[in-house]
Write a sequence for this structure.
């Protein structure tokens, strides 16, 4: 089983040293992530592509390899190929027929041949005509269509090897993670900040997260879940930090001493000040926010300019001209929609007839009433955790009893998203299993029988721990975690 990884086109137009560095980084990233699928997978860097080779007998891992390659920044597309020695045209035709005969049944097709490497005594067109003629005569294809074929029959010739492309997959695009400078993303867990974080990851920035907790531990649980999701899917080739800043008292100070019309702008300025301090410590030069022009009152151009003046850091806004629906649609594409829709936007609770055209003199006047010692105290309580440690140990105080066996009076609750449940069903004969995606738990838990125990299950055991801890805090002591030894 072999895959040919095509580079994102913007990589190929870089200078030779930059292109070489990006290819090396992409290869390293793929090695890190694919090693988790199978330690024997080989990644080989070339000037115009990267080869991913799986050892024989690992065909059952094909879907996992495809998933990793499709979610790796820097990959434009990748081809599943079968590799053979290049003998002659007729041998090439026979191998192509064996690979494509069923796929061509009743469909039009066109053969494409791409050559590279040593000099060949034939042209790509010569081979296309020979193989195309053979397929047209000796398969049940509907014929050749050179303009709009239903099936493309793709072959690549490299030196004395022939690669028959059996399937083509779209990649994520962008630059390899780590080829650009790191950034610190202000993540609230809502659609905007989540998608903005994804976009900087896709562009090659090692994206750390800073979270301003306005809603207690439940809020923190939700944001950690979505940040972990982003990292696991698009950024796990690099370790990043998750920074938590307790901001409840800052909100209290704003409510008491700042005029309601300026609370939104000043809250954002306080967040940028705190993020700047964290970024200085982490040696990061740029902050990322999910703001979009005129989406809310604090995001008018006038107010954004006032907010930016609170920091000397570069503030990146990947969504600055994006429509809300486009942001929501992208959150669905990256698998973050269900997370984000269940997290309240706490910033909105302090919006009361907000100004859309703030004045710097008034901002400074209002901030003069704010006790900045409250902000300093919040910064002293900052918690920093490597995001992969969320998987290993959410937090010492968040541990909930995890059971490996199911008793007669216990019910398993599969809290994975619906598509995860369909892809890998939980098979536990003799056990009662409820399918309740995590984002519906809050409403469904009210109907749980108080005389029974409910064991939350997810594949890695992280989300189940978070949700169980949250529900126990709300008084549902009969909720625990199910972590089977094997399924």
């Amino acid at each position: 089983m072999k895959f040919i990884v095509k580079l994102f086109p913007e990589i190929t137009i870089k200078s030779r040293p930059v292109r070489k560095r990006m290819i090396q980084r992409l290869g390293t990233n793929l090695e890190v992530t694919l090693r988790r699928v199978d330690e024997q997978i080989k990644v080989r860097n070339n000037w115009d592509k990267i080869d991913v080779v799986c050892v024989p007998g690992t065909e059952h891992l094909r879907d996992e390899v495809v998933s990793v390659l499709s979610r790796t920044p820097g990959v434009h597309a990748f081809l599943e190929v079968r590799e053979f020695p290049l003998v002659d045209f007729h041998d090439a035709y026979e191998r192509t027929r064996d690979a494509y005969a069923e796929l061509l049944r009743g469909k039009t097709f066109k053969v494409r041949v791409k050559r590279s490497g040593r000099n060949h005594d034939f042209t790509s067109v010569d081979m296309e005509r020979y193989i195309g003629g053979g397929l047209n005569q000796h398969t049940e294809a509907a014929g050749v269509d050179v303009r709009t074929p239903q099936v493309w029959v793709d072959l690549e010739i490299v030196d004395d090897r022939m690669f028959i492309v059996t399937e083509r997959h779209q990649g994520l695009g962008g630059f390899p993670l780590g080829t650009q400078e790191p950034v610190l993303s202000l993540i609230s867990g809502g659609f905007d900040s989540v998608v903005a974080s994804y976009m900087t990851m896709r562009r090659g920035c090692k994206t750390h997260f800073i979270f301003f907790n306005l809603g207690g531990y439940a809020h923190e649980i939700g944001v950690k879940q979505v940040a972990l999701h982003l990292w696991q899917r698009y950024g796990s080739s690099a370790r990043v930090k998750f920074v938590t800043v307790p901001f409840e008292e800052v909100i209290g100070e704003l409510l008491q001493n700042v005029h309601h019309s300026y609370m939104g702008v000043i809250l954002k300025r306080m967040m940028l000040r705190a993020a700047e301090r964290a970024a200085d410590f982490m040696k990061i030069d740029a902050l990322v926010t999910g703001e979009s022009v005129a989406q809310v009152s604090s995001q008018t151009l006038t107010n954004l300019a006032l907010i930016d003046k609170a920091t000397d850091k570069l503030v990146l806004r990947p969504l600055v001209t994006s429509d809300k629906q486009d942001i929501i649609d992208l959150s669905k594409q990256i698998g973050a929609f269900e997370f984000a829709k269940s997290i309240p936007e706490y910033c909105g609770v302090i919006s009361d007839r907000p100004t859309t055209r703030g004045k710097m003199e008034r901002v400074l006047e209002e901030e003069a009433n704010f006790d900045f010692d409250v902000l300093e105290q919040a910064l002293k309580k900052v918690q920093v955790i490597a995001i992969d440690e969320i998987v290993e140990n959410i937090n010492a105080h968040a541990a909930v009893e995890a059971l490996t066996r199911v008793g007669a009076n216990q019910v398993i609750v599969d809290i994975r998203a619906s598509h995860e449940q369909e892809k890998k069903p939980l098979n536990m004969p003799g056990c009662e299993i409820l399918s309740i995606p995590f984002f519906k738990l809050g409403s469904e838990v009210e109907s749980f029988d108080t005389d029974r125990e409910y064991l939350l299950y997810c594949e890695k055991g992280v989300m189940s721990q978070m949700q169980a801890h949250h529900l126990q805090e709300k008084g549902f002591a009969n909720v625990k975690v199910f972590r089977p030894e094997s399924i």
The radius of gyration is 27 Å.
